[in-house]
Amino acid sequence: MKIAVIGCGNMGGALVKGWAKAGMSANLIVTARTQETLGSISKACPDINAMPDNRQAAAEADVVVLAVKPWLVEGVIAEIVTELGDKLLISVAAGIRHDRINVYAMPNIAAEFGESMTFVEESPLASQAAELFGRVGECRIVPRRQMEAGMMMAGCGIAYVMRFLRAMTEGGVEMGFRPDEAKEIALQTMRGAVALLHETGLHPEAAIDKVTTPGGITIKGLNELDHAAFNSAVIRCLKAGLEK
Ligand SMILES: NC(=O)c1ccc[n+]([C@@H]2O[C@H](COP(=O)([O-])OP(=O)(O)OC[C@H]3O[C@@H](n4cnc5c(N)ncnc54)[C@H](OP(=O)(O)O)[C@@H]3O)[C@@H](O)[C@H]2O)c1
What we know:
Blueprint: E1 3-6, H1 10-24, E2 28-31, H2 35-44, E3 49-51, H3 54-60, E4 63-66, H4 73-84, E5 88-91, E6 103-106, E7 116-121, H5 126-133, E8 137-142, H6 147-155, H7 157-174, H8 179-200, H9 204-211, H10 217-227, H11 230-239
Parallel strand pairs: 1-2, 1-4, 2-3, 4-5, 5-6, 7-8
Antiparallel strand pairs: 6-7
Helix pairs in contact: 3-4, 7-8
The structure holds NADP nicotinamide-adenine-dinucleotide phosphate.
């Protein structure tokens, strides 16, 4: 099955690299606006078919994934519609609806490393799309009302996790670690926390109990986070992008 990815920037490029790493290079067709982007994706994934022509890409594919900026989606569909026939058309563009799109999906850029958290909106063809996104990470089919929340938690969520890691890194530097050391320490601590929750199935608060000695130092730090309204800030951050 040939997949054409229209638009090869941060998101399209991550999907292409992730699918290529999953052994799908020979089935990937990729387009972009500039030769520079096409050149760089061809260098990263030499066995894919990179071309400047969206119509040709759509004509040669069985599935088309739109990964251009939201405001370009309508124009690109108009450009390729004659080549689409009844092919599966998937869009990853945030907040854009169009009659011709079969499946709305919201991956994140960790797709490049096979670690996306992707949401696919319920629809008759959702499982076909989910099968593809499942090759670059975890994929959940959810009702339309949860797509925005999924985007905030996982699409945008990557940025929020980065902010936490930046804060931890800067704290480490203030306490005397070199920036590269502090970043590695923060990353390994994050990795350990993720493994702990994955392996035990614990709720985060139950895992916190395991490292919190009564009257000890961990609880002092946790209470500082509460004084600074950390929990509330994270919840407000996640809800900030929801449409009113
Ligand atoms: N970034 C994320 O984390 C993320 C997560 C989930 C969903 N999304 C969605 O993914 C879409 C793309 O976002 P992005 O961050 O990847 O944007 P981006 O980095 O700007 O990439 C857009 C790509 O589209 C290409 N392009 C522009 N016009 C085109 C055309 N007419 N035909 C073919 N390709 C064209 C660009 O080519 P050139 O490079 O040659 O200019 C570029 O490669 C958006 O709709 C966004 O909502 C993004």
